[in-house]
Design brief:
Helices cover about 30% and strands about 20% of the residues. The protein starts with a strand and ends in an 8-residue tail after the last helix.
């Protein structure tokens, strides 16, 4: 049994990581009393006792926790944005390549990907690697997500507010400076900033990122069918990534995208819609599943040499 401690276990992601770990057959969960969660000495003891530590904290608090770990054998999975562009930390998206998977298998320091970033990179990375796109392309990303990604305060606001504004979708990060943009650039291989337009809406979980492109802007003259084949080949061995046929109508509800299709799962589904000259690449996932806690458990399994889908 591996001893696992979640630092920040009372937050949104921390609670879900704990919930999954409670059912994991290879894990003994170390816990801290709610009233002791800010006790540095108690936290330090648990951080160094654990075989694996999950950091479900704000960026600066995550960095502080890392500095408290003196046990060289402790493996760290950081769910914050603090280390997602750090060269010394493995990026926890094993399906991207064998090199990503190998780095995850051998690391003691792993950064868990962001939800919007996971969806965007899942499309951009294989298409850039195949030469269909390149790092100098002008990229636009449109994302719609449930409110749970905003944490406890946003969840409470949406559940309790009587303000009419919260009943409709709301665009945010209007300065185009969302915290996931540097991660998307670094991990996908973009040379300049994409336009990233996120929208939060009045449902709890679920996320879809859409990347619209003109066929003539692509670096190779390919059809949507050829793009689908490239994605299928790239993810052919991926347990949690599913690539659909183009214009897949069976996945739709009244010809509309079902944003919550993967709720309570660790699956990521990729779609291509559009026409001969304009393509829409769409990635759907649970922002708290493959976009957070599910990916974190998957990464732990890989780091520990456990079957990848254990506990998922």
């Amino acid at each position: 049994m591996f001893k696992v401690y979640v630092d920040g276990q009372h937050g949104t992601t921390g609670l879900l990581v704990n919930e999954r770990l409670e059912k994991h057959p290879n894990v003994k969960l170390l816990k801290i009393d709610y009233n002791e969660r800010h006790n540095s000495e108690q936290r330090k003891k648990l951080l160094n006792e654990a075989d694996v530590v999950f950091l479900c904290l704000p960026d600066e608090a995550a960095k502080e926790s890392v500095s408290m770990i003196t046990n060289l054998e402790t493996k760290v999975i950081d769910a914050s944005t603090a280390h997602r562009t750090h060269a010394d930390w493995a990026y926890g998206f094993a399906e991207l390549s064998q090199a990503h998977r190998k780095k995850i298998q051998g690391t003691h320091r792993l950064s868990n990907p962001g939800c919007h970033a996971t969806a965007a990179i899942s499309i951009l990375y294989p298409l850039i690697q195949a030469g269909i796109m390149d790092g100098d392309m002008d990229i636009s990303l449109f994302s719609i997500t449930g409110y749970s990604g905003g944490g406890k305060q946003m969840i409470e606001t949406y559940k309790n507010s009587t303000d009419l504004a919260y009943e409709a979708p709301m665009q945010y990060a209007l300065d185009l400076n969302h915290k996931h943009v540097p991660e998307i650039m670094t991990q996908a291989g973009l040379n300049h900033r994409p336009i990233f337009m996120p929208v939060v809406s009045n449902f709890e979980r679920g996320l879809a990122v859409t990347i619209p492109v003109f066929r003539q802007a692509l670096k190779k003259n390919v059809t949507r069918e050829e793009c689908a084949l490239i994605l299928k080949d790239h993810y052919k061995d991926a347990h949690f990534v599913r690539v659909h046929e183009i214009d897949d109508e069976e996945a739709l509800v009244d010809k509309r995208m079902h944003i919550q299709m993967n709720n309570d799962s660790n699956y990521l589904d990729l779609f291509i819609y559009g026409n001969e000259t304009q393509f829409q690449f769409i990635a759907c996932l649970d922002n708290l599943g493959k976009g957070a806690s599910g990916a974190a458990i998957q990464n732990m399994n890989i780091m520990l040499g456990i079957e990848e889908n254990t506990g998922l």
